[in-house]
Amino acid sequence: MKKIAFHNLGCKVNAYETEAMEQQMVSRGYQVVPFEETADVYVVNTCSVTNMADRKSRQMLHRARRKNPQALVVAVGCYAQADPDRVLADGTVDLVVGNNQKGRLAELIEAHASSLLEIGSVREYEPLSLADSQEHTRAFLKIQDGCNQFCSYCLIPYLRGRVRSRRPEEVLAEAARLAEKGFREVVLTGIHLSSYGTEAGWGPEPGAPLAALIRELSALPGLARIRLGSLEPRIITEALAAELAANPKVCPHFHLSLQSGCDATLRRMNRHYTTGEYYEKCQILRRAFGHPALTTDVIVGFPGETEEEFGETCRFLEQARLYEIHVFKYSRRKGTRADRMPDQVPEEVKNRRSNVLLHMTRRHSEEFRQYYRGRQEEILLEQEAVVDGKRVYEGYTREYVKAAVPAEGHHPGELVLARL
Q: For the whole prediction, is pTM greater than 0.85?
């Protein structure tokens, strides 16, 4: 039995695809071993969202080669997709597999092929699914790939291709398999989740196909929770929020991409909303759900971002009071419009601005979590831990607030009502 090792970098979509590729190889008779062990084949699912992601991808590929110089080293994913000739020329990698070929990984490995399909020719969702998950009680469920937004700082539309949606019956079948295996929660993921079904004409407006899919998923027995991945603010309407709030399986936890709290910066980023519109979308969700968990991404140091513009972002975030802010320092990506923009911001300025927002999000997150102190909430138990010398089971509320209960009499996958 040949041994194969995987290492994943990047987003939740990559994590989902890595698990699916592992299961594909197991079905062909391979034994999956930890990446630090000696293997016959090493597969690195790479990321290229930032320069740091590129560097980590190269490091892991080189590490694989050092572990076993005779092994087949395979680079898959966005870093490999961006410049396959450069990746192969490094001399570390034997095989490059594009994002649209992950479903053929076993076939390509066994043939030692090194071809790369033109991603622009892909028009349909590539078949890739999970029969199980390494998560404890929650499973990611990929329903969409690709992006048509072309934000000025982002390479992903060039690396992942245009929007392609997975057929509802395939999503439902995989969700049913996961529920049968005991997973109580699924997290719907995609590169641009808000576009689900739009290219296929499955609904009259953006959000309608996603809402229809959620309705069907909520009818599955055994599935207790449906959580959504990152959403574009524009998808949120009063009607959609009301429908989601009326569904007891939908978790009140929404990640709305912001990227900047300054309208001038948003225009340079090619983001198609204003801060006023974003704030109203937050208020729509708050009116519908009461106290939902709202999280976001913010890029600091985007080209041309002045101290005044960064100050606008800080003031807006203080007003919005979000549960968590994922802070990223702008990373130049060759081939994007932002890379050619004047007034690139020095690294030391990016670091300082990043620290300001990291302090802010710690304060806002604490405020959000303190709201639940003394309240009775539902916790989905995930794993055993030791807290203050006592055995507990940790888990998350529907708003993704971490909590724990005494371990005795409980088990993973159990839904427990407890006072926090």
A: no
List, for residues 173-186, the tens digit of each pLDDT value: 999 999 998 899 99
Handedness of CA 186, 144, 228, 358 (dihedral sign): positive
Same domain, 280 and 182: yes
CATH for 63:
3.40.50.12160
**SS3 letters for 304-320?**
CCCHHHHHHHHHHHHHH
Q: pLDDT (tens digit, 9 = 90+) per residue, 34-44?
A: 999 999 999 99
Same domain, residue pair 380 and 365: no
Contact of 269 with 151, CB cutoff 8 Å: yes
- Tokens representing 362 are 């710690």
Residue 122 resides in a domain: no
The side-by-side arrangement of strands in the sheet containing 415-419 is 402-406, 390-397, 376-387, 415-419
Do 147 and 67 have their domain in common? no
User: Does residue 362 fall inside a structural domain?
Assistant: yes
Asked if residues 273 and 314 have their Cβ atoms less than 8 Å apart, the reply is no
Rounded distance between C-alpha atoms, residue 158 and residue 146, angstroms: 9
One domain, residues 362 and 393: no
Answer yes or no: are the C-beta atoms of 225 and 264 closer than 8 Å.
Answer: no
Closest CA to 259 of 199, 319, 358, 327: 327
Is residue 131 situated within a structural domain? no
For residue 33, the surrounding DSSP H or E stretch is: strand 31-33
Q: Which residues span the domain enclosing 414?
A: 376-419
399 phi, psi to nearest 5 deg = -85, 5
In a domain, 123, yes or no: no
What's the token pair of residue 378? 């539902």
When divided into structural domains, the chain yields a total of: 3
124 pLDDT exceeds 60? no
Evaluate the CA torsion angle 112, 114, 116, 117 in order and state its sign: negative
**99: helix, coil or strand?**
helix
Ramachandran angles phi, psi of 343, nearest 5°: 60, 50
Query: With contact defined as beta carbons under 8 Å apart, do 76 and 45 qualify?
Result: yes
